[in-house]
Amino acid sequence: MHATRILAVRHGETAWNVGSRIQGHLDIPLNPVGTEQARRLGRALAEREPIDAVHSSDLRRALDTARAVVDRTGAPLALAPGLRERCFGDLQGRTFAEISAENPALAESWRRRVPDWTPPGEGAESLNRFQARVLAAVQALAAAHLGQHIALFTHGGVLDVLYRAATGLGLQDARTWQIGNTAVNRLIWSPDGGLALVGWADTTHLEDESRDEILT
Questions:
Q1: What 3-state DSSP class applies to 8?
Q2: pLDDT tens per residue, the chain (216 residues)?
Q3: So which residues are the catalytic ones?
C-alpha cells in the first residue's frame, strides 16, 4: 500500500483550555479531565485500532496524552518537535479578551487570520511560517511510515492546518469543524496525492460510559 494512515489527535484538556488562555509553546500540563480523556483514548485505541508508531509534540500536554496511549497499545513513541503548537510570542499566557482590550489592532490581525502577520515576541510564528513547519513535519513522518498506521499527538492549531491541507481550504477560510480535546481525526497521506481527509472529530471513546465512571 503506497499510503500512510494517520490518526491525528489533540492533547487532553488543560486548565488553560478551560480558561481560553493562549498556550502556544508554554508547557502546560493536563488537568484531571484531560488525564481521564487520555486514559479513555488509550483504552479505546488498544481495543479497536492497531498502531505501528506514535509521534508526539514534545510539549507535555501532548506527550502525556501520547504516553497514555502507548501504555495501552505498546506502540513505539518518538518526539516530534515539528508537531508543536504555533508560537504566539508575547501573547502566550493571555486571553483574546485581554489582548483585544489592550490592543484592538493586534487582536484584529489575529482574528482575521492574516497569513503573514507575526505576533510580537521572540520565536513567534506567522500563519504562513507555522503552516509550512507543520506540513513539512507531517509529510516527513508519513513518508517514513509508508504503508503503516501512525498516530500523531499534537495541538489545535496543528490540526487546523492539517484539516485545511486535506480539504483544500485556505488559511483565512472560516472554520466550521470541531477540534476537540482527544478527538480522533483520520487522514491518509500518499506521495502523489498528499493529505486527504478520512474522518474527523471522533469522540466515541469519551461518550461510552457503559463500562466506566462518568467523566467529570
A1: strand
A2: 699 999 999 999 999 999 999 999 999 999 999 999 999 999 999 999 999 999 999 999 999 999 999 999 999 999 999 999 999 999 999 999 999 999 999 999 999 999 999 999 999 999 999 999 999 999 999 999 999 999 999 999 999 999 999 999 999 999 999 999 999 999 999 999 999 999 999 999 998 643 333 332
A3: 11, 85
Domains in the chain: boundaries: 4-207
3-state class (DSSP) for residue 172 = coil
| Superfamily of 4-207 according to CATH | Phosphoglycerate mutase-like (3.40.50.1240)
Cβ(79)–Cβ(134) below 8 Å: no
143, HSE (Cβ side, Cα atoms, 13 Å): 10
